[in-house]
Amino acid sequence: MKKLSELFPGYPDIDIKDIKINSKEVEKGDMFVCIKGVNVDRHDFIPEAIENGASCIVGSLDIECSIPYVKVEDPNKMLTKICREFYDFDKLGLKIIGVTGTDGKTTTSTSIQYLIGKDICGYIGTNGCSCAKYTKDSPNSTPDATVLYKFFKEFAEAGCKYVVMEASSEGFFRHRLDELEFASGCYTNITWEHVNIHGTFENYVDCKVQLARQTTGNFIVNKDDKFSSKFMAANKNCFTYGKDKNCDLYIKNYNITPKYTEVTFVYEKNEYSFVSPLLGEFNVYNLACAFLVCLKMGFDFETLIENTINIDVSGRLEMIDMGQNYKVMVDYAHTPNGIKCLMEFVRNLGLKRIIAVIGSAGERDYKKRPIMGKTVLEYADYAIFTYEDPRSEDPYEIAKQMVSKIPNDAKNKYEIVIDRSLAIKKAIDMALENDIVLVLGKGNETYEKLKDKVIYFNDILECKKWLQERLKKETVVE
């Protein structure tokens, strides 16, 4: 708790219990900040915030108010400054590690956490907020400042000295990370994504590069990615990983099996070979990135190798095994590049058919939808298109966009089943011995955002439910 006068000198000495940006969540004593969202201006909800007990308002308009009103130029930018001060961030002593990129942020971030140790390193991202003593859901990969700085404080109280977080382009675009200095940062790759938010692909890339600008320590660069030079120009303390022998961490060799990956890295002229639980070439890159981040923060290679075996990334290449003679996998892949990389990996597993279940999020980049649909059918033997967080859009129209560029000779290789649960059931019921069912796009997320509500939904649990039903029927028949 702080006084309003501590946050804004010259204003009354009234107590501020918490900071809120949603008027419905305001409680007695809270400060309400009128940020502007994509479709919402919080100034419109000042009366509701006051009715719910707000003690003061922060906004940018000239407004007559019955409680103290602080006028600022830009509430969105001011919010991060307020939260940083309110939660005493500068006194926490945390080293923040930022991870950005189109694909691989969650796996790389989680890998860094496990390599450093969950007892001293927290994680914030798509899979929530966690450390050894603390677990919570996160509303976004990069949450708004009211949530983010609260997480920082709770991590410090749990004994963490490091926090690794997914630094999304949207997080920078919406000023959620404006006041944050990163002790270390890295990027995985950049491909087409989120142009609906940023307007142009160039703007999207620039928001990614912002992490390099805000990193005061070492910045780790994927030298094999075509945008590496932009990051290296933005931070003078860059170190590289990749297949080039001149990289600071050289990916010399790897052998991918269906259950593990044998990896050989070269670092400071020393060669290290070990086994990783992460599968696929893309995860060799993610692991190399995570290793180099930790090495440049002072951790030794042998300790990192020991900790590698513990890495567990929920909802990424997650196999659902209930004794069936076919495979079922859940993965978060939801970009054209992510789908392509995953499909190439699965195609090399030596299985028979690939049956894919996939959708595309509503109110997001619609231009990628036909690319996603075409990419899926280039690798899958059959695809079922369904909804995925349709929000205000018609899920059937989204599905039609996804199949719009599929060649005529592949028209018999897919169908549209809008209900995601029934789509998963259909795919599992179709599977024969040595087939694989891929359920893509959501990973371990626990919700679906529909037009007028948010419902609980988890792909992993849905797969288990329909697997159990099928196995039960087959047992009865036998």
Structure description:
The structure is a single chain. This protein has 478 residues and is α/β, with parallel strands linked by helices. The protein folds into three domains: 2-75, Udp-n-acetylmuramoylalanyl-d-glutamate--2,6- Diaminopimelate Ligase, Chain: A, domain 1; 89-308, Mur-like, catalytic domain (UDP-N-acetylmuramoyl-L-alanine:D-glutamate ligase); 318-477, Alpha-Beta Complex (Protein-Tyrosine Phosphatase, Chain A), CATH 3.90.190. 34% of the residues lie in helices and 22% in strands. It is built from 16 helices and 25 strands. The strands form five sheets. The protein has an eleven-stranded mixed beta sheet, with helices on both faces. A six-stranded mixed beta sheet has the order 18-19-23-20-21-22, sandwiched between helices. A four-stranded parallel beta sheet has the order 3-4-5-6. Helix 3 (75-86) packs parallel to helix 5 and helix 12 packs parallel to helix 13. The mean pLDDT is 94.
Structural topology:
Blueprint: E1 2-3, H1 4-7, E2 15-16, E3 19-20, E4 31-33, H2 46-51, E5 56-59, E6 69-71, H3 75-86, E7 95-100, H4 105-116, E8 121-125, E9 128-131, E10 134-136, H5 145-157, E11 162-166, H6 169-173, E12 184-187, H7 195-198, H8 201-213, E13 219-222, H9 228-234, E14 238-242, E15 249-256, E16 261-267, E17 270-276, H10 281-296, H11 301-308, E18 318-319, E19 327-331, H12 336-347, E20 354-358, H13 369-379, E21 382-385, H14 395-402, E22 414-416, H15 420-430, E23 436-440, E24 447-449, E25 454-456, H16 459-477
Parallel strand pairs: 3-4, 4-5, 5-6, 7-11, 7-12, 8-11, 12-13, 13-14, 14-15, 19-23, 20-21, 20-23, 21-22
Antiparallel strand pairs: 1-2, 8-9, 9-10, 15-16, 16-17, 18-19, 24-25
